[in-house]
């Protein structure tokens, strides 16, 4: 499924900053949950939060009759250049033990944008779709104190540092390269 998704989204010019078609989700400020724009499917708040984190939101102010008065502009998504920078820094999904490459990843705001978080490289981290959804739907969270290491917090209160991927530690530090996985045929 991940391979099909990555292939469907891939565009050689903007592979790290792709936008995808989707269904708009309508929410009302101050209420939990929302629904698809056709009003046929209701969605719980964790699903909406994950969608906003992944694709952004456009606030629309309407009057009592539902007529749009003001359409805000989207300012919260990581740009293609920021996605490339995250790819260089993270090398793929930063979740502990995950090996998904950058092209399979989504940029996650460490500080939720809906709570005033910034769309800055030092406040973003790459996560594969599986781990991004697990984070949003299962009570996990990621924190970062200034520019120190990212920390993954599990729902039970445990925490683990999200170390850079081994290949990047080798490229940027005094770490031996990983062992070869395959040997030449004899």
Descriptive overview:
This protein has helices at 2-9, 45-55, 80-90, 129-137, 166-172, and strands at 25-26, 34-36, 42-43, 60-62, 68-71, 105-109, 124-128, 141-144, 150-153, 159-162. The protein contains five helices and ten strands; from the N terminus they run αβββαββαββαβββα. It starts with a helix and ends in a 14-residue tail after the last helix. The chain is globular, with a radius of gyration of 19 Å. By secondary structure, it is of the alpha+beta class. It folds into two domains: 2-71, no CATH class; 80-172, no CATH class. 25% of the residues lie in helices and 19% in strands. α2 packs across α4.
Mean pLDDT: 75
How many separate structural domains? 2
N-to-C order of helices and strands: HEEEHEEHEEHEEEH
Measured by DSSP, the beta-strand proportion falls in 15-25%
How many helical elements? 5
Q: Widest sheet: strand order?
A: 1-2-3
The largest sheet, given as strand count, sense and whether it forms a barrel, is:
3 strands, antiparallel
Total beta strands: 10
Low-confidence stretches: none
Share of residues in helices: 10-25%
Computed structural class: alpha+beta
Distance between the termini: 35 Å
Molecular shape: globular
The radius of gyration is: 19 Å
Concise account of the structure shown:
The chain has 186 residues and is α+β, with helices and mostly antiparallel strands. It has two domains: 2-71, no CATH class; 80-172, no CATH class.
């Amino acid at each position: 499924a991940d391979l099909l998704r990555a292939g469907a989204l891939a565009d050689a010019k903007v592979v790290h900053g792709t936008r995808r078609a989707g269904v708009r989700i309508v929410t009302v400020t101050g209420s939990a949950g929302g629904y698809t724009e056709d009003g046929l499917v209701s969605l719980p708040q964790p699903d909406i939060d994950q969608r906003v984190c992944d694709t952004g939101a456009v606030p629309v102010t309407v009057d009592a009759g539902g007529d749009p008065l003001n359409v805000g502009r989207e300012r919260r998504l990581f740009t293609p250049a920021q996605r490339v920078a995250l790819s260089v820094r993270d090398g793929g999904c930063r979740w502990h033990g995950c090996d998904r490459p950058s092209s399979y990843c989504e940029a996650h705001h460490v500080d939720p944008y809906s709570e005033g978080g910034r769309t800055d490289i030092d406040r973003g981290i790459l996560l594969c779709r599986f781990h991004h959804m697990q984070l949003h739907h299962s009570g996990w969270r990621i924190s970062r104190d200034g520019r120190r290491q990212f920390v993954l917090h599990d729902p039970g209160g445990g925490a683990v540092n999200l170390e850079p991927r081994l290949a990047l530690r080798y490229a940027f530090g005094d770490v031996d390269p990983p062992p070869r996985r395959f040997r030449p045929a004899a």
